[in-house]
Amino acid sequence: MRPRTIAIVQARMRSTRFPGKVLQPVAGLPLLDHIIRRLQKCRSLDGIAIATSTELADDAIAAHCNELAVQCIRGPEDNVLRRYLIAARETRADIIVRITSDAPLIDPDFIDYLVGGLIANKADFVVMARGESVAHEGADPFTRSALEKLAAERAADPVAREHVSAYFKLHPEFVRIAAIPAPENLKHPGFRLSIDTPSDRTFIEAIYEKLHAKAGEASLSDLIALIKRDPSLLKLNAHVQQKPITSESGTIIFRCDGGGSLGFGHIKRSLAIARHLRDRHGFGVRFAIMANEQVRRMANQFGIPVDEWYADESESEFLSRCLAAGTVLGVVFDTRIASGTEATQFAKDSGATTAVIDDAGPRRLVADLAFYPPVPQVAQLNWRRARTRRHVGWEWAVLGSDVVLRQGSKPDGARNILITMGGSDPAAQTLPAARAALRVLGTHTLTIALGPDVPDTDGLIRALRQLPGPIDILQGQDDLGGAMATADLAITSFGVTAYELAAYGVPALYLGLTQDHLTSARAFEEARLGQIIGLAGCGEGRIAKSLSALLVSDETMAAMRTRGPA
Fold this sequence. Notes:
Number of domains: 3
Number of helices: 21
CATH superfamily of the largest domain: Spore Coat Polysaccharide Biosynthesis Protein SpsA, Chain A
Shape: elongated
Oligomer: single chain
Number of strands: 22
CATH class of the largest domain: Alpha Beta
């Protein structure tokens, strides 16, 4: 009698790297629907079941399954092995095909091939022959007896508990394994087909668009042929690394703030770190912020969930709420909001590793790690009795954007001058700087970048348009990488933007919002990365004089361009 074969799809809403992805639209169809539609085409299957958790967040998955008339079986969120055991017993499966809910391109014919190979070889698990691999992810068939043995003998093993069939791959002696030849049409390893991050979704949607396929209908063999014709598509998610199955899963919280007088520098650099940790190292990331619509939008743009701090709770209470959402491995504090040590100590006591970025306040004294650029104030900090591991240097200066290739000056010798006063321009220096630049512009060109939270943007644009000279205005851009790549010189308020300009090799003139900013800017001046104009409000004449002097000094400009932090 043919063994009863059931596909069991593990799915939950609180996935570490891309929360909610299982019901997110991919090419117009929820990710889970892609998988179900493909499984329904398998000839070897006797049924499909979704194995989700009993957590409240996963009620949405259960409701969606009910709408699709697909069986949904629930178990513990933190024990995938137990969920599979419950589902296998409830569906009376002899063979289980483990399906991960992040694989929208599973191939029905290949799944049938795997199941057939498992049965024909009277094995408990099946893999490709040694040295062979396929462009396929997300499907592992194994016998019920193998699952029962795994649950009975290895229930405490973290790989078995979280990744189930991955244990068989790490320990091939545990059950009978059959190695079968890889199908010729699927032999094309080397690219990601699962959705773990927003970049992965972008890749899959680009594939659908190129193939002109209906949602859930893209052929894996057609995809392979497309990649062979246009390998540049792989760049869309080439930076995303698959998390090793033996690595610890967990989330890193970024306690950061921005908007208004705070600007967006801290948010931009926290976003840069968070995306790197998620995409390249497999961690989950969340932002914990004071409520701000613009900051929420910036984080959500990159698929990063946000928790907001309510006015009626302390920072420690806020962090307690954030830490309760899952396994938190670390908390990064990158905020200018004055605070004591309580919240940082609370995070440490919860078992999280704590880090501060460019923080001169008391948080640093109880944090595990602290990171600073080599500005004068850092040398004056008192670290008495602190056990914090300190990292100081240009290499620890975090940028808020990805540095792209510089395009250089125009061939006629004209300079591209960029004016940017950060995300919110709290001292209203854009208009005075523009007036000053136009005094000495000559044949040079002027670009003005207005941040996403600049007050009365429409009024400022009208005022800029009335100035006597050509101005190119960039409005509301979160990432000025393109503008910096084409700039030859910049006028900026000192902050995170100054570090980005230095990384691009763009000579800069600095206006300080505070005396402390000017003290920090001295390190840049001493490193010949830029020059200080003075405090914000120092006057158009002073700005124009500084700009004019730098424009005519080719030697100084050239030295600044080559002096980026090592």
